[in-house]
Structures are given as C-alpha cells and as structure tokens.
Design brief:
By secondary structure, the protein is of the alpha+beta class. The chain has three domains: 6-192, no CATH class; 228-362, DNA primase, PRIM domain (Alpha-Beta Complex), CATH 3.90.920; 375-474 and 528-551, Alpha-Beta Complex (DNA primase, PRIM domain), CATH 3.90.920. 20% of the residues lie in helices and 26% in strands. The protein has helices at residues 6-10, 116-122, 174-177, 188-192, 205-210, 234-242, 276-290, 346-354, 388-405, 431-448, 516-522, 540-546, and strands at residues 32-40, 44-52, 55-61, 72-81, 90-92, 100-112, 124-131, 135-142, 154-160, 247-248, 253-256, 259-262, 267-269, 274-275, 299-303, 313-315, 327-333, 336-342, 357-362, 375-382, 410-413, 419-424, 453-454, 466-469, 496-497. Helix 7 packs antiparallel against helix 8.
Length: 558
Amino acid sequence: MSTGLARYHEKRDFRATPEPRGHVGRRKAKVLTYLIQKHAASHLHYDFRLELNGVLLSWAVPKGPSLDPGDRRLAMHVEDHPLEYGGFEGTIPKGQYGGGTVMLWDRGTWEPVGDPAEGYRKGHLKFDLRGQKLKGRWALVKMHGGKYGGGKSEPWLLIKDSDEAAAHGTRAHIVETEPDSVLTGRSIEQIAGGDSREWRSDRSVKANLKAGAVEKKEPASPKRAPTKKARTSAKSTTTSTTTAKTQPAGPGRITVAGVSLSHPDKLLFPEAGITKLSLARYYERVAGHMLPYVKNRPLSLVRCPDGWGGQCFYQKHAAEAVHEAVQRVQVPEGDHTATYLAADSLSALVGLAQWGVIELHPWGARAPHPDKPDVLIFDFDPADDVPWARLAQGVKMLKTLLDDLGLKSFLKTTGGKGLHVVVPVRPTLDWDEAKHFTRTVAELFAQTFPDRFTSTMSKAQRAGRIFIDYLRNAEGATAIAPYGVRARENAPVSTPIAWRELARDVRFDHFNVKTVPARLARQRLDPWKDFASTRQSVTRAMLDKLGAGATLRPVRKS
C-alpha cells in the first residue's frame, strides 16, 4: 500500500521549491479526488493522481491519457504526493527535483470498482473518473518484467475502457485537443512565462522570490496607446485624489478607511495616472455597490505589487501580512481546511489594495457553505475575430433560453473582450450539479449553432466562435467581481449593465476606475437592483426540458 510522504519530502528542498510540504490526511474522505498535472520538466509528461488513504497515489504518464481503449499508455509509478498538491500550479525552480512548469490539466473525482486497496496491492486498479476532461471507466495495470522493469519506478499501463466516453482517431488525442489548464484556462507556456505563478503564503517575500514565484523585472510597456478619456497625467490624478478625506499616517503614508497606505503615490496604471491611493478612493465610492457581491465569499486574488505592467501572480490562501480588516474564511480542501480571504467592508477592500491586490475573484458560493453555489455564471469568451454584434446577439439568445426556463439573468462586462451572464439561484445544488446544468446549456448552444459557439476550451476550435465557459461553475473556480478592477491597461472595471446597453460596444476599458464612479452617481436605476431579491432554483422540469434531467441527482423542486 501507500508509503506515505517520506519519499516526497526526501526529494524536495521546501526552502527553494513552491510545492506544498503537505501532510498525510488523517481521515478517509467520502469523495475521492482525482487530478492530472501537465508537467514540463526535463521531458513533458502528465502526472496522474488518485486520492487514497490520505495521499495522492501518483503515476507519470509520458504521452498522457488517450480516450482510445486500444492505446495502452505507459504510467511509471512514483512517490505519493500530499493532497495539497492537487491545487498546485506554478514553476518549480531549475535545479530542484522535477524542475519545470506544472499545470493542472484535469481534476474531478474517482470511484473505485471493488476494493481499491486490494486492487492497488495486486496491481490491477479499476475505477470510474468524473473529471472535467476525462470520464468513464479506466484501469491501471502493473507490468511485470519487460523492457521497463528493473528501475526505481514501477511500470504500469493506463488503459481506457470501452464505454460511451471512449473515442477513436483524432478525438482520442485529448491532450492535444484540450491542452490548457482547468484552473486558469492558461497554456503551460503562459504559466511558464509567469502569468500564473503560485505565491506561497507561508513564506517570506524573499523566500518566494528565491523560489521563483515572482521574477523581478521592469514593468512592461503598454501594448497600445491609452484612450483619450484615460490620457491623464499622474500628477493631476494624484492631486485630485489626495485633497479629499486625507488623513496623514506618518511620513509618506495616508490613511483611507482606517487602513494606512504605504507609498500612496505608487503608479499602478501609469498610462492612466492611477495610483494606489486612486484605487483606494475608487473603493470608497463604489463599496456600497460592490460589497453585496463579494461579502462572505472566498476570494482568489491577483496581486501586482509594482502595478499591472509588472509581475502579477495569483494568491488564494491567507497570509499574516494582509490587513486585519480583511476577513478570513475556512474552506475545505481535501482532507483538511484552508484559510481564504474575504472582503466584507470598505476597510477590507482598501486593505487588499494596500497588499498589492488589483483583481478580486469571488467564489460562486458563500461561507459557511462554500459547497453550495448560489450564483451561476456563463462566461461568453469570443475569439478575436468575433464582432461585437455577434457577441451581443449570443448573450441575448441565452437570456431568451433562461427566460423560457423561468430563470432571471443579469449581465456584466468582464473588463476584457467578453461578457458574463449571471444567474442568482437558491443554494440547493452542489458544485457538480451546478456545472452539469451550465455545461448542458453551453453544449446545447454549441450543438445547435456549431458555427457560432463552442463549449470546448481548445483554442483550435474557437476561431470565429464564442466559447461559452461553463467551468466558472466548478468548485474552486472564480470570476471577476462585479465592480472589480482588472490588471489591464487603463484599469478597466467589470461592470453590471442593463440588457439595453448592448446597443453599443462596452467592453475593455469602456468602463474603468475613473468612469464607473461617475456612472453610478448619475445612474437612476441599478440594472442589478433585483439581484439579491431574486429567489429561483434549477428544477427537475428545467433539466428535463434541456434533456439533462436523467443524469442529475434529485434537485429540490420550486
């Protein structure tokens, strides 16, 4: 059986690698985690991991999985990994064991066929996968002798069973058709470039830098000229924002909402003259609108200490350095709980800004019940060649479908090229059910209008189409907050809009840190005023109407 984590710990120097040290789980989980990490080490391979007895049993699969039952993929058995490794995505420094980039290629749950301990001991493990990419029945079979025997690692074979999830030909090559991360949607090249480096909250800044979490470099130059409305000097912006409600807090510091800002004049968006103080003042003006959508929700954060043009990185877990006004919430992760951050007050928003946070990405569920989503999100992500009119038509089509099902939906920009259709629901579903419903809707669009929509993340299938991303509704997945700032040129803001506002292109920085407060001040009617009071559930009748009811566990009727 499992040897625990002794070999895992022996192979790694945790002062240098961002990988989690982890621990063996103390209790058996009711639901077993499955995941695959794409690992660009000395040779590209795929690390196949199954949770059992408090650890992740692990195999390195050089060619990755195949959906063709005729393909028997070599899987070299390696040391057990901690459950915490299932959330790791980042870069292991060169010179460290396994040095290279790690990407979360797939994740979900697995269910053993028969006694897993006995199957593992005998070298014949059969199981069903319920991942975001891999599904159906699979087997891991230990090899005896042959050309792969005699080494330190045990050779096994990963084999797909012949069932409805199997495929042949090019459709079986899922590592090629679905190459990107299920966590961030990024390619392994983007992660290697530093766009999604993992910052370890249990380390000092110096230790994180040494481990490669952030690379020191000069801020990048803006990719395009600022728009006319954002072409403001840093001097004029700083002057206008420091004259109101300013409280000195020592040399070079200013207090906003009880939070002392260090380096308040630091430019976060140089092309627009927006400073750290400007961002704090923005929160002062929009907090009343923004907080209802982030309160009690675990946050994934994008920190950019040197502004959006410098090095930015994701952070999920809490750290002692963050201001005490920022709430801490407990979230189950595998066999233990992790501490996340939440923003329930203006002081919390300003505290996050002081910590270098630009983007706030809340979960679709609230504490203390993060396993029950109360928001569903359809992320319309168009290819670069899709015109605005077609994108606007697409979200209107979804609104019509949701109206027909009896679900009221709301619309917001993303601060990028897409749009979010957001559906508040009673927290009666679990994450698998929420993802199943949104996936069914996305696939219905893709099957009905294959020339306009796709429900597949693969960039090869997105040319000229709109990707309807339903993966925002998976456990641990997030989306930019309403009124949340993006770490992009001119400080665009993800802004709730009325459906009638689709008459013109309102993407990218049309709404930004400078224009949104003024918009709210003159706004007579909040387009999301009914969001909090909307009481609706996904019902069996809705799923039956979509042809998906038979595959879902019982859902509470409205």
